[in-house]
C-alpha cells in the first residue's frame, strides 16, 4: 500500500495580524510550504483546506475554491474540511486518505483562520458553534465554559489542582520563547496563571489559548514521489474518533472517547506503544485539556495527569516532551490552522530544525481535538518509512 | 441576543419549556433532548416523556467572558435529574451552596432574546434550600 | 357547582425596603412606611417577567388541582406588564403548562383588576359548559417612575387559579362595577404610568370597590357579617384597611390576606394573591369576599364558599406566607439594574 510523507512545511506568524486578511494568510503559508519543498505549484494535484468559522468571522464560505484560485491552483480540485478546532487535522487526514487510495501523488493541506476582526464576544459566540448550539450555546455556555465544567469534574474526581493546570501553561510559554512564529514569546509563572482574571471558573485568562490569526500549510507526497525529497517525514498512522457535541450526553466528563478511539487506531496501524513516542503535540486549547489528553493517549493513568505534569514529565527534559514549540497557548490557536501547525512542529523535530530541538527524535505524535471532544484526530509521524 | 432562529426555537418549545424529553419505544431509554435515532438501540419510535424536575449538580462553572446577548457573570451546571438524564442549565438565585452534589430544581425563566427581538423562555435551575 | 379547583402563587425572592428607596431620594423612610403601611416590596430578577411568574403560579395551581393539564380548555392571563404589545403572554404560558391545544385564550388588561377579570371569564366559560376546566392568572412586574410615590409599592408577583367542577371553593356569584374614571394610565410606548393624587382615592378606589362589593352583596342577598374572610385590592395597606372598616369587617377577617405590607402592590396579582393567603387558612364552609380594583376604572367582586376539599389541596404547593418569607434584600442600584430602569442601550 502507498505510504505518505510530509515533504514541505510553511506557516505565517500567528498573532493579532490586522494587516493581513484570511486569503492573504492562506496564500502566504502555501507559498512558504512550496518554497520549503522546493517544488512548483503545478506539481500540486489537489488542495485540502481546514477552516472552522470563516462564514461567521468573515462572511466567507466556499473556501476551497477561494484558496485554489488565490494559491494559483485552479482548476485543480479543492476540498474544505470542518471539524471545529480539528479542521486542520481533518483536512490533513482527508488528504492522506486520497494519496493512500492512489488517487493523487502530491497534495497541499492548508489550515487557516482569521479570528480577530470581530469583537471578542462575537468570537466567543462564533466558537460556540463547535458545541451544541441548541442546548449549550443557547443557555450561554462558551468553549471556556465547557472545558471549565470538565476541569471541575476532573478536580473533583482526581484531586487535580489549579497549580497543576497552571504548569501546563507555564511549560508551553517557556517553549514558545524561541519560536519566531509564536503569538506570545514571554515566560509566565504559576502565580501569573493563578492570579489572572477568571474566564470561566476555574479557568483564568492564562489557562486559555488566545484568539489568533494564522495559517499553516504542508505538502504531502506519495512514497513514489517522496523519495526525491531530502527530509521526508512519514505519516505512519492516522486515526479519528467522534463523540456527541454536548458534554451532558457523554458517559464520562473526565475523558474523551473520541481521543481514545483515534489513538487506539493509530497504535494498531503503527505497532507503537507510548514508550515509542519521542515528542508529542497535544491540543492545549485550555490547560486542563493537555492533562486529559496525556491520560487519554495513555502516557499516564486516568486521573494522574496533574501529578504527571507536576513531576515535569512534559518538559523538554522530561519523559514525553510536549508542545515543544509553545502549544496552542503560546503559539496561538487560529482554529483551522492548529492541526496543520502541530504536524509542522513535529516535522521540524524530526528534521532537526525545531526551536527547542531534542536529540535523537525519530517518532512524534499529534492530537488535535474539535470542540470538547466531538472530534479527535491523532497523527503519527516518523523519520523512517516503517 | 442569540442567532438561533424563531422556527428553530419553536421546534424545541416543549423540550425547553417543560423539560420534555423522549423515551425509546424499543429499549425504554430516556433521553434529553429528544432524538430521531435512539443512541441505545438505534430504534426510531419514541414517546414524549416529561423528565424529573429536580436533580444533583455533576459539575458547574461561573462564566465571566460571555457570548453576545448574555450578561456575565452567570453560573452554568450539568445536572443529573432524578431519572438519570443529564441536562445543562443555568443556575440562578441564591448561589451560596453552589457545588458538586447540590440539589437543584427546575424553574421557568426568560433565557434570552433572539436577534429579531423574540423572547426565548425555558428552564433554569435554582438550588433547593 | 363550579369554582376554584386549584390555586397557586409566585413571589420572586428579591426585596427592596421602603427605607432604601427613601434613602436614595432624600425622604424619611419611617414616614413613608407609616403613610403607606408597606415595609418592603418584591422585585423580579432580570430573567423573570410576567410570563415566567405566570408559569410558576400556574404550575402551583395545577399541582393543587391534580387534574390533567390537557383538560384545561380556557386560559386568560391578566397583566399591565405583558412582555409584548402584540403576542399574548398566554400562548407561552399554555405551552409551558401543557394545556390542551383546544383552548380559548386571550390576554387581558384592566390595570390591577385584569387577574380577577381573567377569573370571571374562565368561570363563565366553565359555567356555560364551553370548557371543562379554565385557568385564570394575574401576573405583573409593575414599574414605578423613579422618585415617584408609586415606586415604593409597585411590585412583582403572580397568582393563578384552575376553575372547574368539584371545587375547593365554589364561586357563589360575581358582580362588576365599571365607569370611565381616569385615575392612573400609561400610553402605548411609555415606560412609566401617570396618575392623579387625591383623585385616586374617593372617586376611584373607594367608589369602585364600594359599589362592586355592595352590588354583589345586594345581588346575593348577603351582608358583611355573612363573610368570614375578605380581601380587597391593595395598592398600599391604608386604602384596603380603610375600606374594610367602612364595611365593618373585623381585623381577623382581612389580616391573612393583607400581603401588601411585605411584598408591595403586585397589580394584577394583588387581590388574588391576597385571596391565596385567605385560602391558605380558610376552613370548609367559610365564605370569602374578594373585591379587586382596576384603574380606569372598575371593581370585580366575587363571593366564594370554601368546601371540604380545601384541606387536601392546601399543602400540595407553597403557601403565600412561605413565599413571602423566602427573601433576599437588594439595594437601589441592583434594583434599577434588574428592572431595566438603567438602560445599557
Number of helices of chain B: 2
SS strand fraction of chain C: 25-35%
Q: Could you please say which CATH topology of the largest domain in chain C applies here?
A: Peroxisomal Thiolase, Chain A, domain 1
**DSSP helical segment count of chain C:** 13
Topology, number of strands of chain C: 14
Note the gap between the termini of chain B.
32 Å
Named at the architecture level, the CATH assignment of the largest domain in chain C is 3-Layer(aba) Sandwich
- The total domain count of chain C is 2
Q: What's the order of the H and E elements of chain B?
A: HHEEEEEEEE
CATH topology of chain B: OB fold (Dihydrolipoamide Acetyltransferase, E2P)
What features would you describe in this structure?
- The complex is a heterotrimer of chains A (386), B (129) and C (345).
- With 386 residues, chain A is of the alpha/beta class.
- Chain A is built from 14 helices and 11 strands.
- In chain A, helix 4 crosses helix 14 and helix 7 packs across helix 11.
- Chain A is globular and about 55 Å long.
- The two termini of chain A are 12 Å apart.
- Chain B has a single domain (6-127), classed as Beta Barrel (OB fold (Dihydrolipoamide Acetyltransferase, E2P)).
- Helices cover 9% and strands 44% of the residues of chain B.
- Chain B is built from 2 helices and 8 strands.
- Chain B has a 5-stranded mixed beta barrel. Chain B has a 3-stranded antiparallel β-sheet with strand order 2-1-3.
- The longest helix of chain B is centred in the N-terminal third of the chain and has 6 residues, at 6-11.
- The N and C termini of chain B lie far apart (32 Å).
- With 345 residues, chain C is α/β, with parallel strands linked by helices.
- Chain C folds into 2 domains: 2-168 and 310-338, Peroxisomal Thiolase, Chain A, domain 1; 169-306, Thiolase/Chalcone synthase (Peroxisomal Thiolase, Chain A, domain 1).
- In chain C, 35% of the residues lie in helices and 25% in strands.
- Chain C has 13 helices and 14 strands.
- Chain C has helices at 18-25, 29-36, 50-65, 89-97, 114-127, 201-220, 238-247, 251-254, 260-263, 270-279, 310-314, 320-325, 332-338, and strands at 2-10, 14-17, 40-43, 72-78, 104-108, 133-141, 156-165, 169-181, 184-185, 194-195, 229-232, 287-291, 296-306, 328-329.
- In chain C, the strands form 3 sheets. A 9-stranded mixed β-sheet of chain C has the order 5-4-6-7-1-8-13-12-11, with helices on both faces.
- In chain C, helix 1 packs across helix 2 (29-36).
- Chains A and B meet through helix 5, helix 6 and strand 5 of A and strand 4, strand 5, strand 6 and strand 8 of B.
Amino acid at each position: 500500500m502507498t505510504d505518505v510523507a510530509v515533504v514541505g512545511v510553511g506557516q505565517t506568524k500567528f498573532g493579532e495580524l490586522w494587516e493581513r486578511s484570511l486569503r492573504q494568510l492562506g496564500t502566504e503559508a502555501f507559498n512558504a510550504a512550496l518554497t520549503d519543498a522546493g517544488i512548483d505549484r503545478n506539481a500540486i494535484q489537489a488542495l485540502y483546506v481546514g477552516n472552522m468559522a470563516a462564514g461567521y468571522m468573515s462572511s466567507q464560505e466556499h473556501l476551497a475554491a477561494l484558496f485554489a484560485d488565490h494559491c494559483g491552483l485552479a482548476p485543480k480540485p479543492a476540498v474544505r474540511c470542518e471539524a471545529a478546532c480539528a479542521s486542520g487535522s481533518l483536512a490533513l487526514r482527508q488528504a492522506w486518505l486520497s494519496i493512500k487510495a492512489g488517487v493523487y501523488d502530491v497534495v497541499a493541506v492548508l489550515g487557516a483562520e482569521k479570528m480577530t476582526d470581530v469583537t471578542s464576544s462575537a468570537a466567543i459566540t462564533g466558537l460556540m458553534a463547535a458545541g451544541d448550539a441548541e442546548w449549550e450555546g443557547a443557555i450561554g455556555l462558551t468553549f471556556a465554559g465547557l472545558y471549565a465544567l470538565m476541569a471541575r469534574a476532573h478536580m473533583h474526581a482526581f484531586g487535580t489542582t489549579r497549580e497543576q493546570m497552571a504548569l501546563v501553561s507555564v511549560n508551553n510559554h517557556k517553549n514558545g520563547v524561541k519560536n519566531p512564529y509564536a503569538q506570545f514569546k514571554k515566560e509566565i509563572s504559576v502565580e501569573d496563571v493563578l492570579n489572572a482574571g477568571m474566564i470561566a471558573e476555574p479557568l483564568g485568562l492564562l489557562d486559555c489559548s488566545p484568539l489568533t490569526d494564522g495559517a499553516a500549510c504542508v505538502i504531502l507526497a506519495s512514497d513514489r514521489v517522496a523519495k526525491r525529497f531530502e527530509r521526508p517525514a512519514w505519516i505512519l498512522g492516522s486515526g479519528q474518533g467522534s463523540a456527541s457535541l454536548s458534554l451532558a450526553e457523554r458517559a464520562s466528563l473526565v475523558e474523551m472517547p473520541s481521543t481514545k478511539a483515534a489513538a487506539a487506531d493509530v497504535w494498531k496501524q503503527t505497532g507503537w506503544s507510548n514508550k515509542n513516542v519521542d515528542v508529542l503535540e497535544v491540543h492545549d486549547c485550555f490547560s486542563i485539556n493537555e492533562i486529559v489528553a496525556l491520560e487519554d493517549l495513555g502516557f499516564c493513568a486516568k486521573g494522574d495527569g496533574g501529578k504527571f505534569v507536576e513531576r515535569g514529565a512534559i518538559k523538554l527534559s522530561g519523559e514525553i516532551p510536549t508542545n515543544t514549540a509553545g502549544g496552542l497557548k503560546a503559539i496561538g490557536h487560529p482554529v483551522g490552522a492548529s492541526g496543520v501547525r502541530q504536524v509542522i512542529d513535529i516535522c521540524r523535530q524530526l528534521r532537526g530544525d525545531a526551536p527547542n530541538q531534542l536529540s535523537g527524535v525519530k517518532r512524534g505524535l499529534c492530537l488535535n481535538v474539535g470542540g470538547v471532544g466531538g472530534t479527535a484526530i491523532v497523527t503519527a509521524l516518523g523519520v523512517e518509512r516503517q | 441576543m442569540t442567532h438561533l432562529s424563531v422556527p428553530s426555537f419553536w421546534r424545541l418549545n416543549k423540550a425547553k419549556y417543560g423539560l420534555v424529553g423522549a423515551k425509546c419505544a424499543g429499549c425504554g431509554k430516556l433521553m434529553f433532548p429528544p432524538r430521531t435515532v435512539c443512541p441505545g438501540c438505534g430504534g426510531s419510535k419514541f414517546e414524549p416523556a416529561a423528565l424529573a424536575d429536580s436533580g444533583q449538580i455533576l459539575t458547574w462553572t461561573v462564566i465571566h467572558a460571555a457570548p453576545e446577548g448574555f450578561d456575565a457573570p452567570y453560573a452554568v451546571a450539568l445536572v443529573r435529574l432524578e431519572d438519570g438524564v443529564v441536562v445543562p442549565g443555568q443556575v440562578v438565585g441564591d448561589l451560596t451552596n453552589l457545588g458538586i452534589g447540590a440539589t437543584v430544581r427546575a424553574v421557568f425563566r426568560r433565557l434570552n432574546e433572539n436577534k429579531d427581538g423574540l423572547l426565548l423562555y425555558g428552564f433554569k435551575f435554582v438550588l433547593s434550600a | 357547582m363550579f369554582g376554584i379547583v386549584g390555586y397557586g402563587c409566585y413571589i420572586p425572592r428579591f426585596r427592596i425596603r421602603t427605607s432604601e428607596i427613601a434613602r436614595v431620594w432624600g425622604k424619611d423612610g419611617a414616614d413613608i412606611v407609616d403613610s403607606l403601611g408597606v415595609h418592603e416590596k418584591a422585585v423580579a430578577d432580570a430573567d423573570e417577567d410576567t410570563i415566567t411568574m405566570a408559569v410558576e403560579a400556574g404550575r402551583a395551581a395545577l399541582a393543587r388541582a391534580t387534574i390533567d393539564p390537557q383538560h384545561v380548555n380556557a386560559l386568560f392571563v391578566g397583566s399591565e406588564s405583558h412582555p409584548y404589545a402584540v403576542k399574548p403572554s398566554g400562548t407561552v404560558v399554555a405551552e409551558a403548562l401543557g394545556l390542551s391545544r383546544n383552548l380559548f385564550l386571550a390576554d387581558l388588561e384592566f390595570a390591577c383588576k385584569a387577574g380577577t377579570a381573567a377569573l370571571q371569564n374562565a368561570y363563565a366559560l366553565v359555567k356555560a359548559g364551553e370548557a371543562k376546566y379554565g385557568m385564570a392568572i394575574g401576573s405583573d412586574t409593575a414599574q414605578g417612575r423613579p422618585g415617584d410615590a408609586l415606586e415604593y409599592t409597585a411590585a412583582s408577583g403572580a397568582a393563578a387559579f384552575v376553575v372547574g367542577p368539584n371545587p375547593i371553593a365554589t364561586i357563589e356569584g360575581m358582580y362588576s362595577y365599571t365607569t370611565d374614571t381616569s385615575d392612573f394610565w400609561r400610553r402605548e410606548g411609555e415606560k412609566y404610568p401617570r396618575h392623579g393624587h387625591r383623585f385616586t382615592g374617593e372617586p376611584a378606589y373607594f367608589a369602585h370597590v364600594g359599589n362592586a362589593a355592595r352590588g354583589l352583596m345586594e345581588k346575593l342577598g348577603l351582608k358583611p357579617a355573612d363573610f368570614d374572610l375578605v380581601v380587597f385590592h391593595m395598592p398600599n395597606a391604608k386604602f384596603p384597611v380603610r375600606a374594610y372598616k367602612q364595611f365593618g369587617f373585623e381585623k381577623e377577617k382581612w389580616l391573612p390576606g393583607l400581603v401588601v405590607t411585605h411584598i408591595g402592590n403586585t397589580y394584577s396579582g394583588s387581590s388574588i394573591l391576597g385571596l391565596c393567603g385567605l385560602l391558605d387558612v380558610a376552613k370548609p364552609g367559610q365564605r370569602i369576599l374578594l373585591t379587586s380594583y382596576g384603574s380606569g376604572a372598575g371593581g370585580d367582586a366575587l363571593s366564594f364558599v370554601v368546601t371540604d376539599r380545601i384541606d387536601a389541596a392546601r399543602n400540595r404547593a407553597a403557601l403565600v406566607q412561605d413565599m413571602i418569607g423566602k427573601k433576599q434584600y437588594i439595594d437601589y442600584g441592583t434594583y434599577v439594574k434588574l428592572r431595566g430602569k438603567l438602560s445599557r442601550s
